[in-house]
Design brief:
With about 130 residues, the protein is of the alpha+beta class. It is built from 2 helices and 6 strands.
Amino acid sequence: MIDHVTKVVPGKSAEGYKFLKNDEWFFKVHWENDPNMPGMLQVEALVQMCAMSIFTLDGNKGKTVLLANVNNVKFKKKIIPGDKLNLKTEIKLFKRGIANCYGEGYVNDDLALKAEFTVVLTEETQKYISQST
């Protein structure tokens, strides 16, 4: 759900964008006469961008990040075909493979969405699960 990463600070933040082409698969079904990017795909774009700041840490290339929860999500502006969704994400806390994150998406410098979310680096959390059993 992202096209390009423009800036990464490993373990801290990532920025980039998604250009919404007219032929994106979801515009055909959401909604036929009023196409817009579904809210959870907007959140997924934030998650994928934030994951870049985790994958660029030493030893994390090729690992898997899963979304664990989303809080305080706000959708402020409809994202439509032809829009460029600029994404800014940051990691608030990253410990034992669990990252508390925050992200914002902008269209034409207008806030389109914001969310707090938690992602899990599955390979890292497995170390702690197997230690406790």
